[in-house]
Amino acid sequence: MDILYEDRHLIVVWKPSGMESQSSRGFKADMVSELRRYIHNSSPNSKEPYVGVIHRLDKPVSGVMVYTKDKKSAAELSRQVSERHMEKRYLAVLCGKVDKNVDKFVDYLLKETKTNLSRIVDKGISGAKRAELEYRVLKSKETDAGIILTLAEIRLLTGRHHQIRVQMSGHGLPLWGDRKYNLDCAEMRRDSDNIALSAYRLTFSHPITGKIMNFSRMPEERIFRIF
Q1: Are 225 and 216 contacting, i.e. CB atoms less than 8 angstroms apart?
Q2: What is the rounded CA–CA span in Å between residue 67 and residue 172?
Q3: What is the DSSP letter of 186?
Q4: Confidence of residue 23 (pLDDT cuts 50, 70, 90)
Q5: CA 133 → CA 44, 69, 128, 137, distances in Å?
Q6: Contact, 120 vs 166, CB < 8 A?
Q7: What is the per-residue DSSP string for 63-120?
Q8: Buried b (16+ CB within 10 A) or exposed e, 77-116
Q9: Burial call 143-174: b when 16+ CB within 10 Å, e when fewer
């Protein structure tokens, strides 16, 4: 486990791309089972460790995550999430040239359960949910193949299924490596199966002391290194 911070109530970790952020139904490792193993090894005489899942990241996405060790802390941090007091910022590599260096997207998304995909729909469609995000361009580069790639910081104002992936793709700026929402960026096939998206910064109030906790870490995936 790549531990960024730990105390009696919570543990902040770096989730690598390719690992589930919650309990997995399969036999592969996931963050919750790995955390339980880590806590048990640290205190082998204790009972079955409690690991509270507060927020989630898609399997191909890396990033900073916080888990709790008790239900009271879990309830408080879950409240912060629901009231938008926990802030996450993402780094993404977008395929294409961005016209505006700073912008805000507001769309309505509909999740399709059978395909596990979301799509942008009209406001009046039944089941559609409002989705908002803000982005700012940090840097752009042209690859040897002539593809323009843009590094952007993204801030979610709502939390919807695959929100960043579907909104950026819907506005003509799909994420590098996203095989679900980006089928046009041919050069991405040379990279891994992971998506060029990382929750690199996390800010919240400590559930017991109220102290502002701020954590950040730059992603290590190869596509980010060119910037």
Answers
A1: no
A2: 34
A3: G
A4: confident
A5: 43, 31, 16, 13
A6: yes
A7: EEEEEESSHHHHHHHHHHHHTT-SEEEEEEEEES--S-SEEEEEEEEEEETTTTEEEE
A8: bbebeeeeebebbbbbbbbbebeeeeeebebbbbbeeeee
A9: eeeeeebbbbbbbbeeebbbbbbbbbbbbebb
Instruction: State the pTM of this model.
Output: 0.89
Amino acid present at 212:
I
Amino acid (one-letter) located at 122 = D
- Name residues whose C-beta falls within 8 Å of residue 131's C-beta, 6 or more positions apart in sequence: 105, 106, 107, 108, 109, 158, 160, 163, 167
- Cβ pair 108, 129 in contact under 8 A: yes
What distance in Å separates the CA atoms of residue 135 and residue 21, rounded to the nearest whole number? 24
pLDDT digits (tens, 9 = 90+) for 138-187: 999 988 878 899 999 999 999 899 999 999 999 999 999 888 887 666 45
Q: Are strands 197-205 and 62-68 parallel, antiparallel or unpaired?
A: parallel
101 phi and psi angles, rounded to 5 deg: -70, -25
